[in-house]
């Protein structure tokens, strides 16, 4: 809320009541950021319990990154059905946490939806000591932390449980060490696609790897080509890059701009000849 | 604080023995290959066997994949370490589980301990 108020002030001088671009999102107040951040992060229960909150009502943070929604899997240790919600105690071997699933009376008797079950239904689906996958957001009430669940479903494939734990590790490493470069085996196992892109060029210095992480696929390809292709001091011409990578010259030019503006490559003979900026 | 149950392989048993470790409750995954009344054998992929010390009401079945939560204990007659079973979850056919993934999980959970265990 404070943020928006200040925003208003800074526009206020010249504004005189017009519709400001900055105000477009203001009706939602402090929740705007929350709504925009729709990421679903795989975590362990211990990470939820360890999550920090910079100030009351602020979004929770894990590894310094805001978390909107979390996903975890664990065994159901207790089920308690109330008229408005079902509370589960979930244990994933790293800790225990309460999960509240509100009962939506509108969907309770709708057979087509598999979430929003009535308390009775939930019980037949999820069994005590069986595994569940939970997806929801971190809440706190007093000093107690719990999960406001969007969905609590039974888990039947053990591989899903194991890959989840590896994913949680991979995401944790992403936030603490940066994107996968020469990532350790544990982190690599689960991060699939992203690795394939970075795979060919995992030996660049960490500063550049951070800059590259947010770039387009083409930019990453150009970088790794410049890194590996034999060349003299003047680097490679844009046309050469385009033909070697089999990518249209216009795309190469656009991606080249990205790399140039980030300062990871520089132009040599002319504007279209680039080499890697080593530092 | 809640109870933590580290996932392990047979070769890690010694690290959770009551004499040394602060916590000796562990989680282990394997196939039940033999049952002899009060004890059973859990085969953990290519990582060897563990002797399970069963409760009287244990309902394990030979040939099923199970995840066991239990305490590391000495076996009678000094035959090394075993696990006193506190609870078990049946996961069905061992062929449906890629044990390699579990091995990676065990490695990852111990290598990046901060997000899994205290």
From TrEMBL, chain A:
Belongs to the replication factor A protein 2 family. The keyword Protease does not apply. It comes from Penicillium coprophilum. This is Replication protein A C-terminal domain-containing protein. Pfam families: RPA_C. GO terms for molecular function: single-stranded DNA binding. One of its GO terms (biological process) is DNA replication. One of its GO terms (cellular component) is chromosome, telomeric region. Keywords: DNA replication, DNA-binding, Nucleus. Residues 172-272 form the Replication protein A C-terminal domain. It comes from the Eukaryota. Its main location: nucleus. Residues 12-38 are annotated as: Disordered. It is found in: Nucleus.
UniProtKB/TrEMBL annotation, chain B:
PANTHER family: REPLICATION PROTEIN A 14 KDA SUBUNIT, REPLICATION PROTEIN A3. It comes from the Eukaryota. One of its GO terms (biological process) is DNA replication. It is found in: Nucleus. GO terms for molecular function: damaged DNA binding; single-stranded DNA binding. Belongs to the replication factor A protein 3 family. Signal peptide: none annotated. Its main location: nucleus. Keywords: Nucleus. InterPro entries: NA-bd_OB-fold, Rfa2. It comes from Penicillium coprophilum. GO terms for cellular component: DNA replication factor A complex; site of double-strand break. This is Replication factor A protein 3.
